[in-house]
Design a protein that fits this description.
Elements (H helix, E strand, L loop, with lengths): L5 E5 L11 H16 L3 E11 L4 E8 L6 E8 L3 E4 L4 H4 L2 H14 L3 E2 L6 H9 L11 E3 L3 H10 L2 E6 L8 E7 L2 E7 L5 E6 L2 H7 L7 E5 L5 E2 L2 E11 L5 E10 L14 E3 L1 H12 L3 H23 L5 E8 L5 E7 L8 H29 L1
Helix pairs in contact: 1-9, 4-8, 5-6
């Protein structure tokens, strides 16, 4: 008798003594443990190790009964639901993984969720076309020539240049026009910061590590500050046991000294969102009630708009949200492969909600199969 659905966590484990990359091991182990606690089975697998003829796949199970706990390789039946956690865009674009992902998408449909990373420009275009979500968006343009940056700087004190296909604040530039010169700060991939000054925007474009049309330029929304440093919010939304988007939790991230973003990788720190927003509301004299209303509206509109615009099935999204000194809420970007929240309550709730959604997908599929049969 089947107890619960089988969840396949799709990633890139390797056949070796430590098969799961260290930055994923703890998160995946947590999912497997909570799944077992809730009457389900979960394992991690590489999409290239599926044997479609045998309806089986080699995967890895985290066995807490061994001493010490360890990852074990077993042959599993094909999962009922697949959770895409391929860790980066480079791997997701690799030909063998792309080929297998295509087959999986055809066979599983919405039972494969979070099937791809998001592109910043595509996401912006989707939300710009939605009447309800566009009011949350900073002014943003694709960089088709250096003049696009210059035009933006005529209207705003400073701007950000962001790669369309990147995350974690990597390779972002902040540009400030001052006394006819252009000052820039560049957060590099190796988590260092480079500063410089150039005479024009053509020189700025020459500094970009990729083609300029792979970047967008976005107004600097002048984030409100907490203890003298800019902050923003990480909002985690997930689908629940009814397949409906709900907010799981929100946490504040405070920019590190000299950093142009709030990412922890670049010296940012974590803080309680309620405390940070309340302090900012008092310091800047804006309405806490109004900010909460804006956040509620944003989280009810944006996930559905993104899902519809991409034409894909997502089960969770992390949104980066800013608040300026007037209390206006801004949507900054979204991530379809959110990192593990370190806040214990948010993390715990997210794991339970993940398994609830897995159950929802399996029940919906089984009902559909019975109806068609």
């Amino acid at each position: 008798m089947k107890i619960g659905p089988i969840l396949g966590i799709m990633s890139t484990p390797r056949v070796q003594s430590s098969p799961i990359p260290s930055n994923q091991s703890e998160s995946f182990a947590e999912v497997i443990k909570i799944a077992e606690h809730m009457g389900c089975t979960a394992f991690v697998f590489n999409p290239c190790e599926i044997d479609w003829a045998k309806n089986a796949v080699w995967g890895y199970y985290y066995n807490i009964k061994t001493e010490p706990d360890q990852w074990e390789r077993h042959l599993f039946p094909l999962p009922d639901v697949i959770y895409n956690r391929i860790p980066n865009r480079t791997l997701e674009k690799r030909e063998d993984i792309k080929h297998n992902l295509l087959i999986i998408k055809k066979r599983y449909g919405p039972r494969l969720f979070n099937p791809c990373f998001l592109d910043k420009w595509k996401t912006h275009a989707i939300l710009s076309s939605n009447r309800q979500s566009r009011s949350f968006l900073p002014k943003t343009s694709r960089i088709i020539n250096p003049g696009v940056i210059a035009d933006m700087l005529e209207n705003y004190k400073s701007v950000y240049l962001k790669p369309c296909g990147s995350s974690l604040g990597n390779d972002i530039f902040k540009v400030i026009k001052r006394d006819g010169q252009f000052n820039y700060i560049h957060q590099t991939l190796n988590q260092t910061t480079q500063k410089g000054q150039v005479p024009d925007c053509t020189a700025i474009v020459s500094k970009l590590p990729a083609d300029m049309d792979e970047y967008l330029v976005q107004q600097d929304v002048q984030l409100a500050r907490y203890h003298g440093r800019p902050f923003d919010l990480r909002v985690l939304v997930q689908k629940n046991q009814c397949g409906l988007w709900r907010r799981t939790g929100v946490a504040a991230r405070i920019a590190g000294e000299g950093s142009i973003t709030t990412h922890v990788f670049y010296g940012g720190s974590r803080s309680n969102a309620q405390d940070v927003i309340l302090t900012a509301a008092k310091n800047y004299n804006f309405s806490l009630v109004d900010v909460k209303k804006q956040l509620s509206k944003l989280q009810s509109i944006v996930p559905e708009a993104i899902e519809k615009g991409y034409g894909e099935s997502f089960g969770e999204l992390e949104m980066d949200v800013g608040i300026n000194h007037k209390g206006k809420v801004w949507f900054l970007e979204a991530n379809s492969k959110p990192f593990r929240f370190d806040e214990p309550l948010i993390r715990s709730k997210s794991l339970v909600r993940l398994i609830h959604y897995v159950r929802y997908l399996e029940n919906k599929w089984e009902y559909s199969e019975r109806q068609s049969g």
